[in-house]
Design brief:
By secondary structure, the protein is mostly beta strands. It has two domains: 192 residues, Immunoglobulin-like (Sandwich), CATH 2.60.40.680; 83 residues, Immunoglobulin-like (Sandwich), CATH 2.60.40. The protein is 0% helix and 44% strand. The strands form four sheets. Strands 2, 4, 6, 8, 9, 11 and 12 form a seven-stranded mixed beta sheet that branches. Strands 1-7-10-5-3 form a five-stranded antiparallel beta sheet, with no helix packed on it. Strand 18 and strand 19 form a beta hairpin.
């Protein structure tokens, strides 16, 4: 499933939306639209009085966004959102969630989200398909997760110079009440567009990553990446919940083509994400291990 955002400039935003008053456990059905940070945040609902009665970032937890510092036009960028929920769990289990929207410097939506293989949904575009959505949020099946992995695809036409992820998160105590016991956290992360070889005055990308093959796979798969100069590279494999299951490489590499083998040994069937981190950002490819 892909979730498009209207191209109007250059900022990306991630946010956890406030739960409705009668759904306090990070809103198990997904957060309502319009709480991504630039408009409102979760304390609009998670308070016993006014939003200022439950100010953000006053709890002991946090929300973090892991994404590259740079991106290219048309590139699929891996994003990980993680909520450290240290709110005392009054209920049987703590709950947490998030919402994402992509913005330019005037806070208009830009780009496209790729939710393939992730337990997330899109809302707020006014259309009839997921690609009309402006916001992406957790679901009832994922509000017990601590982290979520998905992708953002940069536009190919008039890509923005800067993309910023705005994040607001709700660390709920799962007591069924949308009050000050639910702690709200916010953060931001910005990416700068890098030019590519077919653009004026472009600097060629240092790192390129091929598709994984075969995909889906049953036993072993292979993937190649290429460096145009020596660089330090880190390669990690994450599962569909955003947990790192293997670190395949971490260290200096010579210029040229490098091939990696991904063994199915010890892995459960499902969707995974292979990310190669290089000096000019990260490249991610999805892969599926079949039964």
């Amino acid at each position: 499933m892909k979730v498009s955002l209207i191209l109007l400039g250059g900022v990306v935003a991630i946010a956890l939306v406030a739960a409705l008053p009668f759904l306090a456990m990070s809103n198990s059905g997904g957060a309502p639209t319009g709480f991504s940070g630039p408009e409102q945040i979760c304390n609009a609902c998670h308070t016993s009085g006014l939003p200022e009665d439950n100010p953000p970032n006053t709890g002991t937890g946090s929300v973090t966004v892991t994404a590259p510092d740079t991106f290219e036009a048309g590139e699929s960028v891996s994003i990980t959102v993680e909520v450290d929920n240290t709110t005392p769990p009054v209920g049987p289990n703590p709950r947490q969630g998030f919402m994402i929207s992509a913005r330019n410097d005037t806070l208009e939506h830009v780009g496209e989200f790729d939710l393939e293989g992730s337990p997330l949904v899109g809302f707020g575009g006014g259309g009839n398909t997921p690609t009309d959505s402006l916001y992406v949020t957790h679901t009832a099946s994922s509000n017990e997760m601590m982290s979520w992995v998905f992708s953002w695809i940069a536009p190919t036409v008039d890509p923005p110079e800067t993309v910023t992820f705005y994040v607001a998160a709700n660390g709920s105590n799962a007591d069924g009440m949308p009050d000050e016991g639910d702690k709200i956290y916010t953060t931001t992360h910005s990416m700068t567009r890098i030019t590519v070889a077919n653009e004026p005055d472009a600097t060629p990308s240092v790192l390129s990553l091929d598709a994984v093959a075969p995909n889906p796979f049953r036993h072993d798969a292979e993937v190649s990446y290429t460096l145009d100069r020596p660089a330090t590279v880190r390669v990690v494999l994450r599962d569909g919940r955003g947990r790192t299951v293997r670190e395949l490489e971490n260290g200096p590499k010579e210029a040229g083509n490098h091939r990696l083998r991904i063994s199915a040994d010890g892995l459960s069937p499902g969707v995974y994400f292979l990310t190669v981190y290089g000096p000019d950002g990260a490249r991610t490819r999805p892969l599926t291990l079949s039964n």
